[in-house]
Write a structure and sequence with these properties.
The structure holds two protein chains of two kinds. Chain A is α/β, with parallel strands linked by helices. Chain A contains eleven helices and 14 strands. Classes of the chains: A alpha/beta, B alpha/beta. The interface between A and B is large, with 40 and 35 residues.
Chain lengths: 421, 316
């Protein structure tokens, strides 16, 4: 409301500027503003919706994904009208967290939510959202979190390579002046009042679908059809396609898309009957999103999909693709290189929206860790080789990993104690 | 003491494994193979839950009822509710006792229970169902059955449901097995070495890290479990102890390590591009040694010692 009022006064002043210009007739170029005869303002050209900001590169309207570190990696945030696809980790522990951060950000900003799942009731998902951290408390919480993990090596100023100290670090603490991304406490639940005050719609597949539906070949699985109809209804009824003058963003969250619980058999068989169902769904969904003020997050168990060609098609049909790889159960869990982290995060695709190049960051080796309260994404650094008697196998691991890591990695590659020049 | 408490107070170690498998509820997947069969473990779990007073339903599809009930004493046999789909799987004899809709109908009917008593449903076998029903339908029904008690609002009305599914790994490709194991709360893979059976148990609690353990066991004729220590396995050392690790910094012609004095001298060295105040003073001070520096030059035979400026010829 405040934005509209100030724009109204600006419009009045430009109206008077037009009047004076026409009187003095200095130039034949007239500013095409609202006419002075119109008493009620026709509305500002640029509407500011809560929780969005234009991108600094190309003015695209962005929303936050709920994790400011992920926003930074995606070039400022998730563009409105695009799909964020999260490739789930093997035991599905960390991808629900990203899903919930996205929804929690929507509640904090006052956006409308649409939660679709075939596994859990959406009301239960909303009960488990993390609590937002308010500005005055969060600085204190961050300081104590960061302090616990401070290593003595980080305090040494670099003497010879002192220019590398000026490299920008990954931002893991809160910026108190930003209202765009919020921080959340993963150990606490969102307060009930906030959830009830928000406007949300849930789609739980077992309730919406009857089991005796006939499926025609080469068409969408009935579950997907129902979900698309539901999304279209919500967009149309609540005016997210531009018909509602009070603009708001619709945040859509779809959990475990492609799993057998949605009725899709791409995880069960390599050449099933409905192998095009998922790709058709994503195509239609993208069309719905591009013509409305909405952003969508989808988690998909791509490690279960049998046909690798489908994964490639799904990646192409989505806009932003982020893959999570957790170390649980793999041999990397015991690798000393990865001992501080819980998994790797791969940014597989960033879209080129109205642009020839995309806004990728130069940091390609990223790892995440779930601390008690925070989910952090950090650049992967090799730890210093501190022990004098390092066994040969771990030395070879480090050497191989050093070859894999990009040039943007830390300068501490290689042992410190062994070679002193 | 009620019989269930008596059963629980039995051998402590034996109860741990079966208890942990049944305690979590949800779908328990027993993956067996030709060498290490899982039906005896399934029957041990059935016996355990029957003794604990739970309602036990058996969907018998792969073996006949007599063969399944063999080995159980009459007390347990009376408590089992057996649905026989082995004798007449397609319901050709059209008798009333057959369940309408086949095994899938039986599972769907169990979704609509309202009893507060905990229930164990044993599927013998899940492989049989997977080969005859579409995988997605089976996954949806299993999820609906095993998650009846997960609503936080009315958790008191419906008791805990455990679905024990016997899956023969070798019959299916990685797709269906992967899909079912992503739905399962507990996964038991049977294996073993040298005549001793082991169970690798993977527990997936929701929103927590999965825990896994390997347990060596054997099943006694009355279908009670006997836990054992594994066969002694020599641990393979990572590096061969006979060959000491080679240190490449010995026997070098140059010095790779610094002594303490040398390290101090290195730390106190001012680097050439570091602009400190001493350096500034050294540059601004007039150099005392300037007067004593000379340049000695021997003129060559071909040198032109003309003092004129060759640029004078240019007309600027």
């Amino acid at each position: 409301m405040a934005a509209v009022a100030t724009c109204g006064s600006v419009a009045a002043s430009t109206g008077s500027a037009v009047a004076t210009a026409s009187k003095s007739n200095v130039t034949s170029f007239q500013r095409r503003g609202p006419r002075a005869s119109v008493t009620n303002d026709s509305g500002p050209r640029l509407v500011s919706i809560a929780g969005t900001r234009p991108s600094v590169r190309n003015g695209q309207l962005l929303v936050s994904t709920g994790l400011p570190a992920l926003d930074q990696l995606l070039g400022g945030g998730l563009a409105v009208g695009t799909v964020l696809l999260i490739e789930e980790d093997k035991y599905n522990i960390y991808s629900p967290l990203l899903f919930k951060y996205f929804l929690a950000e929507g509640i904090v900003n006052g956006h409308t939510l649409l939660v679709a799942s075939a596994k859990e009731d959406p009301a239960n998902i909303l009960q488990e959202l993390p609590a937002p951290l308010l500005d005055d408390k969060c600085k204190k919480e961050f300081d104590e979190d960061v302090y616990n993990h401070k290593t003595p090596e980080s305090n040494i100023k670099m003497k010879i390579a002192w220019r590398y100290q000026l490299l920008p670090k990954m931002e893991i603490g809160p910026v108190s002046s930003s209202r765009f991304g919020h921080y959340y406490d993963a150990s606490k639940r969102m307060p009930q009042e906030l959830i009830e005050a928000s406007n949300w719609h849930g789609f739980f597949l077992p309730e919406k679908i009857s089991s005796t539906l006939k499926v025609e070949p080469c068409s969408l699985t009935p579950g997907y059809t129902k979900l698309l109809q539901f999304i279209q209804n919500i967009i149309y009824e609540e005016g997210f396609d531009g018909s509602n003058p009070q603009r708001n963003i619709l945040r859509i969250g779809i959990q475990n898309l492609g799993s057998p619980l949605w009725g899709d058999d791409i995880c069960c068989a390599e050449n099933g009957g409905n192998s095009h169902s998922l790709t058709k769904f994503l195509y239609v969904l993208r069309g719905l999103l591009r013509t409305s003020l909405s952003a969508c997050i989808i988690t998909m168990p791509t490690h279960l999909i049998q046909n690798k060609a489908i994964i490639a098609r799904v990646t192409t049909l989505s806009d932003v693709v982020v893959g999570l790889e957790s170390f649980i159960g793999s041999e990397r869990e015991t690798n000393p290189l990865y001992k501080d982290y819980h998994g790797l995060i791969h940014i597989r695709q960033i879209p080129r929206l109205n642009n020839l190049i995309c806004d990728e960051s130069d940091v390609k080796d990223l790892a995440f860790k779930l601390k008690r309260k925070l989910f952090t994404i950090e650049r992967l650094h090799l730890p210093p080789d501190l022990s004098d008697t390092v066994s040969r196998s771990s030395k070879m691991d480090l050497a191989e990993s050093a070859k894999r890591l990009g040039p943007g990695c830390g300068m501490m590659a290689g042992g410190k104690k062994h070679l002193d020049f | 003491m009620t019989p269930s408490e008596g059963a629980r107070a039995g051998t402590g170690r034996e109860l741990e494994m079966l208890d942990s498998l049944l305690a979590l509820g949800g779908l328990v997947l027993l993956r067996d193979s030709v060498e290490w069969e899982g039906r005896s473990l399934l029957k041990a779990l059935v016996k355990k839950s029957a003794l604990c007073g739970e309602q036990v339903h058996i969907l018998g599809c792969e073996v006949s009822e007599e063969e399944f009930r063999e080995g159980f004493d009459s007390d347990i046999n009376n408590r089992l509710v057996y649905h026989d789909f082995f004798r007449d799987p397609l319901n050709w004899s059209k008798t009333e006792e057959a369940f309408p809709g086949g095994p899938l109908g039986a599972l769907r009917a169990m979704c609509k229970r309202t009893d507060p008593v905990p229930v164990t449903i044993a599927l013998d076998s899940l492989s049989w169902l997977l080969l005859r029903l579409p995988c997605t339908t089976l996954c949806q029904v299993l999820h609906a059955v095993s998650h009846q008690d997960s609503c936080p609002g009315d958790s008191s009305s419906v008791g805990k449901v455990s679905v024990l599914g016997l899956l023969h790994e070798e019959l299916h490709g990685p797709g269906p097995v992967g899909a079912l194991s992503s739905l399962a709360q507990t996964e038991v893979t049977l294996g073993g070495t040298m005549g001793q059976a082991s169970a690798h148990i993977l527990c997936r609690r929701p929103r927590q890290r999965p825990t896994d353990q390997t347990q060596w066991f054997s099943i006694l004729p009355d279908f009670s479990l006997d836990l054992q220590e594994g066969p002694s396995v020599e641990s393979q050392p990572y590096s061969d102890p006979h060959i000491p690790p080679v240190d490449p910094t010995t026997h070098l012609t140059f010095n790779l390590h610094l002594s303490k004095k040398e390290r101090e001298a290195r730390d106190s060295l001012i680097l050439p591009f570091q602009f400190s105040s001493e350096k500034q003073q050294a540059l601004l001070r007039p150099r005392p040694g300037q007067a004593t520096s000379h340049i000695f030059y021997e003129p060559d035979a071909y040198d032109d010692l003309d003092q004129e400026d060759p640029d004078d010829d240019l007309d600027i």
